[in-house]
Specification:
The complex is a heterodimer of chains A (220) and B (765).
Chain A: E1 2-7, H1 14-24, E2 28-33, E3 47-50, H2 70-80, E4 84-88, H3 90-97, E5 104-106, E6 114-121, E7 128-134, E8 138-140, H4 143-151, E9 155-160, E10 179-183, E11 189-192, H5 208-215
Parallel strand pairs in A: 1-2, 1-3, 3-4, 4-11
Antiparallel strand pairs in A: 5-8, 6-7, 6-9, 9-10, 10-11
Chain B: H1 6-11, H2 16-26, H3 32-41, H4 44-47, H5 52-55, E1 75-80, E2 83-91, H6 93-98, H7 100-116, E3 121-131, H8 137-157, E4 161-168, E5 177-187, E6 202-207, H9 217-220, H10 241-255, E7 260-265, H11 270-282, E8 285-289, H12 302-307, E9 313-318, H13 323-332, E10 337-344, E11 348-353, E12 356-362, H14 363-366, H15 384-389, H16 402-413, H17 422-425, E13 446-450, E14 455-462, H18 465-470, H19 472-489, E15 493-502, H20 509-529, E16 533-539, E17 543-544, E18 547-548, E19 552-561, E20 578-582, H21 594-599, H22 612-627, E21 633-636, H23 641-652, E22 656-659, H24 671-680, H25 690-695, E23 702-706, H26 711-721, E24 725-732, E25 736-739, E26 742-746, H27 747-761
Parallel strand pairs in B: 3-4, 8-11, 15-16, 22-25
Antiparallel strand pairs in B: 1-2, 2-5, 3-5, 6-9, 6-10, 7-9, 8-10, 11-12, 13-14, 14-19, 15-19, 17-18, 20-23, 20-24, 21-23, 22-24, 25-26
The chains are: A alpha/beta (220), B alpha+beta (765).
């Protein structure tokens, strides 16, 4: 399988994502320009990644403009065909804006940009140390959606403490249900605010991000 | 238009004699537009007229330098493997005082352009900030605005903010300092010079349209801040980091076409500065049609177009006939790119507006190193230095007992200059680029990977301005030495500096004394460390009616870590079996410490002990010990002294410490301290004041930790090199702090004090 990483004009984690996948995960990456729309080189076994950054400056609302780009139209089609799509940080915001994932990402509860290591965990997994870097990462959805997400096992990651407890202390931005990442109902579209690509390197002394990619099942 | 007189010149902040000089230089009375051009170019900010004579005494070449200081927009040094590092620090103090958010944001934006205009990709940002009293509402508004501005721009632009410093002193109440540094990487041979060449080569204007924002910014930054100047809002620019991000990518891409002759960003004094400097450097002139400059306002006058400091703009000279290749790249990035003129051979900048000549000026006469004036300013020893010389430590009672020691330690870790700056730095994206090694293993300097070379850079900004205030010569030396010490303790080799010289009004002889002495100290230290000055920036007029700020010559230093195995962190680990203080133990030195200034409230005290030769020897020793893989951790002793250094090392990995500096407390002496003595030789702490031992800020000291396996090798090396050493204690496995056999509580409790001290005091923002 291979990866495609979409480059919007304000993407700034595109190169990090490429480096992590090629260098640390040893997979092939094709960089995709937002003005193009050709995804014919990918099959539904492959994964398109929407990286972090400030696509189009995000002056209106995070991800609000990016969803209209030619490449995003193709990515939406690709996802609807069952192709795998991962959105990280700004990529998660774009997925929510384009309706591929439910809910929205609001300004952090403390009204500030936050960059630090946090802990997240999947279903019955150990707590993983993964960095966040966002101003608008507070996941919000109405109760019906939240219940559906939890019932269907669509919550990929909850924020937690280092010890793995789902408490306010472990929740950096005030997300409802401590949600850090979700997937769609059919399980092929993934969105998360934390940056796994920032935690795949031994020299940076954190390789927990590799486990995130493994848990998403997109490395096969 | 009314007649141009001395009065017009003075209104444009040019002196009467400068007006006469202009007439001499161009052989006639300038028109208003031309006078505006001189006003911008001969401002302190662009011309360095009151500093350049002294700046030229600094070591400005040699070592790994690939261009001489001042030649290009930023310094360029060889880091091996066919790559160079480009770096510079610059101030944005005056705009930040007026409008902290945009002032700081555009400061970050401006310094990034200086880096990528040379063809380098920025990989790390740092900043050095100074504010007034943290409890003051105005300070909190400025702090919140500046931090938000730096984060807003840097986070979006996508360069990690990896380090910096924040100090709070009353003297910065009216004049906060915002110094931003950027560091970039370029393949040698891919650099672009800020030079215009080749008759008929087209001149392109790229990026944002020009508005009336920031008109007169350069001359604005060259005046004292008064009540009225807070009304000068339009002189502060507005930043657009998204535009700059596109500009970065497009500029780096367009360089690859090989069609670019020269490129310079438009910073201070906008179009006039970039056209003048590029032309003067190439010995050419330019024909510019100002009506072809994209504007965001209608009916802008020629002088407004020349002086506007609208952000995110670049000027490029392109090889004639290759315009299409260049336009294609900017079109890809949706950036406006307009041909506004061409290069001429007459050395004259001719600015036209709808066909009419608005200004014709010899480029050479406008610029630093050309016609711009250079002044010798008078200086005299400041009065206040007598008060500093009169400081007598014996008038201060020493710390009496362990209870008092504990109480002072608790206060010290919560002082704003010492406590964790977590509230600040978590608002910056410090990890984008996935090269910041400090995220999970902090060192004294910021260590950033250079993935292209398999090496790393160690970068730091340093200046304790209270030391410089107490002794400008020695204080500036200390700033250089501390920067080098931070790099060495991180496992790096210092290679060069950039400086940001923040001072008061240069026309005041006592202020100018501080400047001259600081330059002398910096120059002497840089020569010893073999770290040439690659460039930088001077910010005068950091002054308000009550006086000047502390003299603040901020040092931005870059070092290389050739072998990633050498990266050394400051945190103790479970292998920290012995904790040792290396460097000269000076009896009774608490001068200019946080302790004497903040806890004892003494404004005037001497600068701490510093000896340049001893400092270099100690740093060489640390480098050797790191290369020999003898150290578990290394952390230099700075603000807060030995106590704070120990605690900071303990906090990183939650490692408890048991500290008994032998014989300091003769009553406590027992078998355990005796055994320490056997290990480490002479007791150097005998007779030392307790405040001085724990909180003194004598320079040239590092606290290292070493495993039991390596202790003997280290001690042998200590003996061979004749380095003074003192065993302080050891890491325990109880996550508690134990000092002189007293239980001081858990690491967790102490960390909470240290981490939350600043956010607890920031109430409303």
């Amino acid at each position: 399988m291979k990866f495609g990483v979409v480059v919007f004009p304000g993407s700034n984690c595109d190169r990090d994502m490429q480096y992590a996948i090629e260098h640390d995960l040893k997979k092939e990456v094709i960089m995709l320009w937002h003005k193009d729309s050709d995804l014919s080189m990918f099959t539904t076994d492959d994964c398109i990644v929407l990286p972090g950054g400030f696509s189009y400056g995000d002056y209106l609302r995070c991800g609000a403009i990016a969803r209209f780009s030619p490449m995003m139209k193709s990515v939406i089609e690709f996802a609807n065909k069952g192709g795998k799509v991962l959105g990280v940080c700004n990529g998660f915001q774009i997925l929510c804006e384009s309706g591929l994932l439910p809910g929205v990402l609001l300004r952090n509860q403390n009204q500030q940009f936050i960059c630090k290591n946090v802990y997240i965990k999947g279903q019955n997994e150990e707590a993983l140390k993964i960095p966040i870097a966002h101003g608008e990462g507070r996941y919000y959805a109405d109760d019906a959606v939240l219940n559906e997400l939890e019932t269907n096992g669509q919550v990929l990651f909850h924020y937690c403490t280092e010890e793995g407890a789902l408490t306010e202390e472990g929740n950096p931005n005030g997300s409802t249900h401590h949600i850090a990442g979700i997937k769609n109902k059919s399980g092929n579209v993934f969105g998360m605010m934390p940056h796994p690509e920032r935690a795949t390197s031994a020299i940076l002394q954190n390789e927990d991000g590799k486990k995130v990619f493994e848990m998403l099942g997109i490395l096969n | 238009m009314s007649e141009i007189t001395i009065k017009t010149a003075q209104e444009l902040r040019l002196a009467a004699e400068e007006f006469q000089l202009i007439i001499e230089k161009i052989g006639r009375t300038p028109n208003f537009t031309e006078l505006c051009a001189f006003s911008g170019m001969w401002s302190e900010h662009c011309s360095y007229k009151n500093s350049i004579k002294w700046l030229k005494t600094l070591p400005r070449s040699g070592g790994r330098m690939l261009v001489e200081a001042g030649e290009e927009n930023a310094g360029l040094m060889d880091i091996g493997n066919n790559y160079g590092v480009v770096f510079k620090i610059e101030s944005h103090n005056h705009p930040s005082a007026i409008e902290p958010f945009q002032g700081a944001a555009t400061g970050v934006g401006g310094i990034q352009r200086d880096i990528f205009t040379m063809g380098a990709r920025p990989i790390a940002s740092l900043n050095s900030l100074r504010f007034g009293n943290i409890d003051d509402n105005k300070t909190q508004r400025l702090l919140a605005g500046v931090v938000h501005g730096i984060g807003h721009y840097g986070n979006c632009f996508g360069v990690p903010t990896v380090g910096g410093e924040v100090y709070f002193e009353d003297c910065y109440h009216t004049n906060p300092l915002v110094n931003a540094m950027s560091v970039g990487i370029v393949k040698i041979g891919d650099t672009v010079s800020a030079t215009a060449l080749g008759e008929g080569n087209p001149v392109f204007y790229v990026g944002s349209a020009t508005g009336k924002d920031g008109i007169g910014g350069a001359s604005f930054a060259s005046a004292n801040i008064t009540a009225e100047s807070t009304e000068e809002l339009p002189a502060v620019q507005v930043g657009d980091p998204f535009q700059e991000k596109k500009l970065l990518e497009a500029c780096l891409e367009v360089i690859q076409t090989g069609a670019i002759v020269g490129m310079q960003d438009m910073g201070a004094a906008g179009i006039i500065c970039s056209t003048a400097e590029m032309s003067a450097k190439g010995g050419v002139g330019m024909h510019i049609d100002l009506d072809k400059v994209p504007t965001r306002q209608q009916n802008m006058k020629a002088w407004e177009l020349l002086l506007s400091e609208s952000q995110e703009r670049m000027l490029m000279v392109v090889e004639k006939g290759r315009e299409a290749e260049v336009l294609k790249v900017f079109d890809k990035w949706d950036l406006s790119c307009s041909e506004v003129g061409h290069v001429t051979l007459d050395g004259i900048l001719s600015f036209y507006m709808n066909g009419a000549l608005e200004a014709a000026l010899p480029a050479h006469e406008l610029v630093l190193g050309g016609g711009a004036p250079q002044y010798d300013r008078a200086y005299t020893t400041p009065e206040y230095l007598h008060k500093i010389a009169a400081f007598d430590i014996n008038t201060i009672p020493d710390i009496q007992d362990n209870a008092e020691l504990l109480s002072v330690a608790k206060q010290i870790v919560q002082l704003p200059n010492i406590a964790s700056k977590r509230w600040v730095y978590t608002q910056y994206d410090s990890m984008v680029g996935t090269g910041n090694v400090g995220t999970n293993g902090p060192s004294d300097a910021s260590v950033v990977l250079v993935k292209e070379t398999g090496k790393a850079l160690a970068i730091t900004t340093d200046c304790n301005s209270r030391y410089v205030f107490a002794d400008p010569y020695k204080g500036a030396q200390i700033a250089v030495a501390e920067a080098a010490r931070n790099i060495v303790c991180s496992g790096g080799e210092p290679i060069g500096i950039t400086n940001c010289l923040n001072f008061g009004n240069p026309y005041q002889p006592e202020v100018y004394y501080q400047f001259v002495q600081a330059i002398k100290g910096m120059g002497d230290a840089c020569r010893k460390f073999n770290t040439p000055v690659t460039g930088g920036n001077v910010s005068f007029y950091n002054q308000h009616p009550e006086g000047a700020v502390y003299p603040t010559p901020t040092i931005g230093m870059v070092g290389i870590v050739d072998d990633l195995e050498d990266i050394t962190t400051l945190g103790f680990t479970e292998k920290s079996n012995y904790i040792i203080l290396l460097g000269k133990q000076v009896i009774n030195d608490i001068g200019s410490s946080e302790y004497i200034h903040k806890i004892k409230g003494i404004e005037y005290s001497t600068a701490p002990y510093f000896d340049l030769e001893e400092e270099i020897k100690l740093q060489n020793f640390i480098s050797k010990a790191i290369k020999d893989k003898l150290l578990v951790s290394a952390h230099d002793v700075s603000e807060g002294g030995v106590m704070v250094t120990l605690l900071e090392s303990a906090f990183v990995n939650n490692i408890g410490i048991s500290v008994i500096p032998f014989d300091l407390y003769l009553d406590d002496k027992d078998a355990e301290t005796d055994s320490f003595n056997e290990v480490i030789g002479d007791n150097v702490a005998i007779g030392m004041r307790k405040d001085s031992f724990w909180f003194g800020e004598s320079q040239g000291r590092v606290i290292v930790s070493v495993s039991a396996d390596n202790l003997n090798s280290l001690l042998t090396l200590v003996e061979v090199w004749d380095i003074q050493s003192c065993l302080l204690g050891y890491a325990n496995d109880t996550q508690t702090i134990n000092v002189n056999k007293n239980d001081w509580g858990t690491i967790k409790e102490w960390k909470e004090l240290y981490n939350t001290a600043i956010e607890k005091r920031i109430t409303s923002h």
